[in-house]
Amino acid sequence: MRYDLVSLSLFVAVAEEQNLTRAARRKHLAVSAVSKRITELEQQIGTPLMLRLPRGIELTPAGHSLLFHARQVFRNLDQMEEELSDYVAGVRGHIRIFTISAALMHYLPRAISQFLAHYPQTDIDIEEHTGIGVVQGLLQGDADVGFFSSWTPASGIEVWPWQQDQLSVLVWQGHPLAERATLQLMDCVDEKMIGPHRESAVSHILEREARKLGKTLQTGLRVSSFVSMTELVAQQLGIAILPVNEIAQVANHDAVRCIPLVEPWAKRELYVGVKRYALSSPSVKAFIENVTPMKRAMGAEEGPLLEASLINAGLKR
What we know:
The chain is α/β, with parallel strands linked by helices. The chain is 43% helix and 21% strand. The protein starts with a helix and ends with a helix.
């Protein structure tokens, strides 16, 4: 069955406006023309898509299904047009990356630098999100590639193991815990804490493990920036628990000391993921293969060798 893009566009407009007149005005068409297109679309599909009511329309279950898929079609067309316009401009590739800060502050810049050394005509957009935000961006098609931790549920995403990190405790010099070589969460739960924002994976895992100990974390301050957390610890406003690669950025701070948290759950994998590797663009496939050499997606089909397709697409120098 073939669908006319104009009719699909009009259907989306009617569904979003919930009114034929407003949709016709939005599309600069007569109401009768819009109504005719919708009727023809319903005849083509063989079922009603909307109920005509005195004050507007209401989608049927079939209409809701068509709206979802029509939006996907137009999102893909927009992405295709954007990527093709990049080829015209000489960019030859566009990758949208959503990432957690743990990857952005430490590992990702080097990975991108190495990738661009081989594929310099690739345009890369990077946005920082929580792990949940990264996965949602992949599922909704707002991101091509995502970096997040194994603590984030990722159903529907194809993932590759990428890096590892571990939680450590940040204390100020002179704190009673500062002379310890290692720590456990039980050593810290009664301390005044400086925590990350509530939706972060680190926040969720710490609260979960504290509950197992029958404790509640005494989190008086929350900030999104790990650098800011370090400064707050230096001012003796509380201690903080951060991924060790975050602490590596500030471990030379004269006023603070970082101590490993030696608990099995404190170690985590960092993943790189895509929604569907098989449907990804050549530039995205090249990026995945570049940052995860010799690795296979967990639960995904193994990707083919990309050299020929990359040369054909103009991505390979």
